[in-house]
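Memo to structure team: turn this sequence into structure tokens by end of day. - J.P.
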Amino acid sequence: MKVQFAPGAFDDFEGTQEELDALVAELEEMFESMSPEELAAQSREVDVADIPEHVRAGLLDEPRTLQ
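Reply from structure team:
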């Protein structure tokens, strides 16, 4: 398994690029180090209506490069 972030997932992030890079690295490391059982235990359902529109739209888009 691999964690992938939808285009636009961090558009509302308020911080520096270095802080964002550290957050993404922490999330990826946390995901990679969990067993499937641990991951399932810490997961929760998400109501699609709670996901911002620009992120939902990005789920269908091709990968993009942020500048």
